[in-house]
Amino acid sequence: MIASLNVDHIVHAPRIPEPGETLMGFSTSRELGGKGGNQAVAAARLGAEVAVIGCVGQDEDGDEYLAALLAEGADVTHVRRSALPTGRAAITVDAEGVNSIVVVSGANADIPAAAAEAAIDELPGLRVVAGQLEAAAEATERAFAAARSRGALTVLNTAPVGDAAEKLLPLSDVVVANEIEFRQLTGQDPFDGNGLRRGGAELSAVGCRWVIVTLGAAGCAVLDASSSTHVPAVAVRAVDTTAAGDSFVGALAARLAEIPGEPTTADVVAACGFAAKVAAVVVTRHGAHPSLPTAAEVAGFS
């Protein structure tokens, strides 16, 4: 996992404030998060063998994050320490569980590209390499190229969309974008069938084998070069959507890593069904890492 590792500062409020508006909130909390860290912990709790490539500060936040990853059973050999502070995120969660997030990269921008590439070559039995656009772009690019040369599957979560996407998309076997990111990448409406297919074809044309568009309560769509399959969401009462998308990506990567040989579209669709159930568990809980379930909890969820 090429991972962004952040400390989240969360405010619960009646709604997301308008620009220039001050609201009175309900409560605050501080938790470990970051898209990559969330995805790594999600996969580890579901039973995957996870190695993290990333960077934290030479600060107490960095110490805490490394200890937490070790406690989850993750390999942190390739997590480096930076003079920059550990990454941070400011998150507002409204009364319906919808969130708004601002990320300050800090040490996440300091992952050495050559070290990330070398780490891929040093990991035995590598099957899936996942990354996001929160971590250092060149490091992710070099790691994805190295992973592909070894025959590993690459999974890119296109959050947050930025200039790095242009270089990473051609190196990504599986692309996971939410509805906003899909619009930003393709200019197409994912809730319109024709727009969904046009956008999927555009991403397939640059080299993505599967495009997964997450649509919140509407589930997700799995697109390949010739088909579109809808995977329904699991109906639940959401209390906090923090880490929902990350849990989906982590669960997807964990399931894809279990597939012997080359995955098929049917395999990807089935993995998305499992990931949707994991995300359903997550949104019924508060926080990032605290909300991520074990395999047993997912199996018992209904």
Automatic annotation (TrEMBL):
Question: What is one GO biological process annotated to this record?
Answer: D-ribose catabolic process
Any idea where this protein resides? Cytoplasm
Record text on activity regulation: Activated by a monovalent cation that binds near, but not in, the active site. The most likely occupant of the site in vivo is potassium. Ion binding induces a conformational change that may alter substrate affinity.
Q: What is its EC number?
A: 2.7.1.15
**GO terms for CC?**
cytosol
Q: Which UniProt keywords apply?
A: ATP-binding, Carbohydrate metabolism, Cytoplasm, Kinase, Magnesium, Metal-binding, Nucleotide-binding, Potassium, Transferase
Residue sites binding ATP per the record: 178, 214-219, 245-246
What enzyme category does the UniProt record give?
Answer: transferase
Which pathway, per its entry? Answer: Carbohydrate metabolism; D-ribose degradation; D-ribose 5-phosphate from beta-D-ribopyranose: step 2/2
Q: Which cofactor does it need?
A: Mg(2+)
Sum up the protein's function in the record's words: Catalyzes the phosphorylation of ribose at O-5 in a reaction requiring ATP and magnesium. The resulting D-ribose-5-phosphate can then be used either for sythesis of nucleotides, histidine, and tryptophan, or as a component of the pentose phosphate pathway.
Identification of the protein by name: Ribokinase
Q: Which HAMAP family match?
A: Ribokinase (MF_01987)
| Cofactor binding, per record | Requires a divalent cation, most likely magnesium in vivo, as an electrophilic catalyst to aid phosphoryl group transfer. It is the chelate of the metal and the nucleotide that is the actual substrate.
The record ties this protein, via CDD domains, to: ribokinase
Enumerate the InterPro entries for this protein. Carboh/pur_kinase_PfkB_CS, PfkB_dom, Ribo/fructo_kinase, Ribokinase, Ribokinase-like
Which sites bind substrate?
A: 6-8, 34-38, 134, 246
Any idea which residues are catalytic in this one? 246
Q: Major place of localization?
A: cytoplasm
Quaternary state and interactors: Homodimer.
Please list the residue ranges annotated as the Carbohydrate kinase PfkB domain.
2-294
* Transmembrane region(s): none
**Chain residues that bind K(+):** 240, 242, 282, 285, 287, 291
Please report which protein family the annotation says this sequence is part of: Belongs to the carbohydrate kinase pfkB family. Belongs to the carbohydrate kinase PfkB family. Ribokinase subfamily.
Any GO MF annotation of the entry: ATP binding
